[in-house]
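User: Predict Maf-like protein's structure from this.
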Amino acid sequence: MQVILGSASIARKTILAEMGYQFTVMTADIDEKAIRKEKPEELVMALAEAKADAIVAKLQSINNLEKIAEAETSVLVAADTAEAILERLPIGDYAQRAEPTLLITTDQVVVYDGAIREKPSNEEEARQFMKDYSGGHAATVGSVVVTNLKTGLRKGGWDRVEIHFHEIPDEVIEKLVEEGIVLKAAGGLIIEHPLIVPFVKQVVGTTDSVMGLPKALTEKLLKEVL
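Assistant:
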């Protein structure tokens, strides 16, 4: 099975490897700020759909589809979901294959005090985000959509996790900002870094979901579209 992960996220690559998949990485270049929705669940779905479209367009433009033709089941993972995908792919080609090709796409945002937070735009914003979480709580909302490109069947869902923090020392926040890792995370929220682990009070949900790819939901949807 060949997998293309449509994200450079270290966390997602780690999770996908833990799920038993071997994969290569391909990123999507889209203007995330141009896509706006009021509800976090709607936003993560819309963003992931745009990323999926961009991944597919890139595959088509570089004539790279042949590279996945030998796999019995090819899984395209466009991190961060899909909508007019069937109109843009040569669906007839997939329909003629013996085994299905499955497309997995995802996205994630953080919700804090009722407001949607995406990746921090700069170090100051990342610093403020983390200070807000200190001694408080926030939630991650992540989407997963799986599309069977052979049958056209699509299943999707979203997952929400609540995270509660102890007080986070300013020096820890500064180190994390200096490393730059929080600038790459939705809402600047991370729970797996060794510096932040001691200050995570409670996670109501799964760690893999917070990290960007909920395993259980992903596996469930994969089975449903087969």
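Confidence is low (pLDDT under 50) at residues 80-92.
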